[in-house]
Amino acid sequence: MSESAPLDPALAARRRDTVLGAIRRNLGRDAAPPAPEFPMPPAHPRLAVPEEDLVERWRKRWEARGGTSALVPTKAAAVEHLVAWCREHGLPAPTHAARPLLELPWPADWHLDPGPAGIDTQSAVSLAFAGIAEVGTLAFLSGPESPVTHLFVPDNHFILLDAATIVRHFEDLWQRLRHHLAPAGGDWRERLPRTINFVAGPSRTGDVEQTIQLGAHGPRRVHVVIFQENR
Amino acid sequence: MQIRTREFIPRATFALHDPNLQRALAKAADGFIGKRAKAIAEVPEFEALREAARVRKDEILSELDLWLERYEARVRAVGGQVHWARDAEEARAIVLALCRRAGAKTVAKGKSMVSEEIGLNEALAADGLEVIETDLGEYIVQLAKEPPSHIIAPAVHKTKEQVAELFAEHHGTTPEPTVSGLVTEARQQLRRAFFRADVGITGANFLIAETGASVIVTNEGNGDLTQTLARVHIVTAGIEKVVPALEDATLFLRLLARSATGQDSETYTTYSMGPRRAGDPDGPQEYHVVLVDNGRSRMLGGPWREMLRCIRCGACMNHCPVYGAIGGHAYGWVYPGPMGSVLTPLFVGLDTAYDLPNACTLNGRCGEVCPVKIPLPDLIREVRHAQQRDGLHPPAEQRVKALWRRVAERPALYHGLERLAVRLLATLGHKGRIRRLPGLSGWTDARDLPAPAGRTFLELWHAKGHDE
Prior knowledge:
The structure holds 2 protein chains of 2 kinds.
Chain A lengths: L8 H19 L26 H11 L3 E5 L2 H15 L6 E2 L25 E5 L2 E3 L4 E5 L7 H4 L3 E7 L3 E2 L2 H12 L13 E5 L4 E2 L7 E2 L6 E7 L4
Parallel strand pairs in A: 1-11, 2-3, 3-6, 4-7, 6-11
Antiparallel strand pairs in A: 4-5, 5-8, 9-10
Chain B lengths: L7 H9 L2 H23 L4 H16 L2 H14 L3 E5 L2 H14 L4 E4 L3 H5 L2 H7 L3 E4 L2 H8 L16 H12 L7 H18 L2 E4 L3 E3 L4 E6 L3 H8 L2 E7 L3 E2 L2 H15 L7 E5 L13 E7 L3 H6 L13 H4 L2 H6 L10 H12 L6 H4 L6 H5 L6 H14 L5 H14 L2 H18 L4 E2 L6 H4 L4 E2 L6 H7 L5
Parallel strand pairs in B: 1-10, 2-3, 2-4, 4-7, 5-8, 7-10
Antiparallel strand pairs in B: 5-6, 6-9, 11-12
Protein name (chain A): L-lactate utilization protein LutC, contains LUD domain
Organism (chain A): Tepidiphilus thermophilus
Pfam family, one (chain A): LUD_dom
């Protein structure tokens, strides 16, 4: 077999037909069933989220996994809070931030790069797309304004979260996502980002003696500042 | 991965006498069982979720071809490529060809049971590639040149002292033998690997037909660094992983973390859809999915279809008293415990993996905790039936069973022998317990046998004035 043979299109097509054929044979039919209308979206059982105050529920769940959070009135107040937080905890000033955050009134000596994080990046600031109250997690959509490396490379990760974007269930997020990607109708799937990332706290591992240790590969400290100006 | 299922009995015996392993297993079982129970107690909807998951997965499997075709079309639409592999050899060849075409020297790997199943690491290494497992547990067993012993906690059998020795040997450093010291050491070593890797290989917990997404969950973030920093992202996934919609992934994810680690959510859940878009500051330039059949389509046809519901959470092994006593290595291949006792014989042969289903005590706990309600005890029994039909049971066992049948078919003989046996056993008892049974020390070494009352049930029944 030559080096590129496994990727040869004719061979690939034959393999595909063999696998699909084997599936059909074992399901006891000759061809794919007539395509049913996509049952969208399917309705599955949800978890009860009885809390009226989704911000409170979100924070409780988030902090149960080792993340920290603060509640401030405005985006500008979030900046002030972060500056104080870094000073108070002896943390290095962030060097990277999502592009939409660059316009905020950061201190003059914070030089924030909207590009990808590198191996030495210690600290970054991101803007969440949404929070999900059900389990207290955050959703991010990758793109020019939201580098994925900011979520995973730095030791310290700061996240701004708009309280108005906290939804009750994952199902609410999916509906919001579909609308967000195609606000004027059309096929939302044509505009999917490369990734949808959910971050539920600091990186952790239990792989050595089942003892939980934070900061396995991703951030050791994740601090979320919730601002309420749009609430 | 080398198949060592024929060594089940010597490996199990060895495991039972390994004090480090026994300590680790006891600790792990307590941790997993307790955490899961606590997580589920908080979710009154858990049973409804299990039932919905069972029904949904069966619906999907009955139209698997349709969902796979739709999934493939969406992956193409977002700029990715799908490769179909009929067996392990084809899957290896495809991944290897993709690595060669990319001019790769270093491959970073997130945890993928399918990649273990197809023996990917060995094939890549044999071709001169540097392959680095990045899940901390997988990394530890890779350094130790051992297979994983648990599907979600691969190094559960290692003590921190053993890990420190491995790191000292391979890194040339002297890490502090504390959990935090070891994790920091691994973090520094693996960080360089993530940035050096040309290709990142991950598994997939789910594939979503609606969006062409592959979904991974991790607590460490290793799968994300693996796929974000490499030029090429390759996903290896079994064909049974596909689900129709985002809401379906949500259904299964509500069950997965709680069943696996007792968390309400793992730290990171990532939906990946194709390569880097125009203007994206990071992410891979190529995105490939290798769909692996390797016997799965055949399982759709027989009594084994239900096994394809498995979402690889590990709850069955965490609750299995046999796994809890001997650990994962004794099972001799990728999939240990109850799910492995069904899957392994189907993948490697009823004959080759003969002992696995026969080690089961049929206590039923695995079936009770399975988040997608796979009737594991029934399937294990079904594997035994298939072995019986193929004449695989050892001759001695066949003779004993034939003898048993001859006796059981003759009530007078049966009751006569029974009367003799209960009287004999009663004389061996002391205070109602039999502590040692000649010829059956394997049983009585670890536990007592209740001594019979000295008379059979029928004798006692008649003595109470009941009729025949």
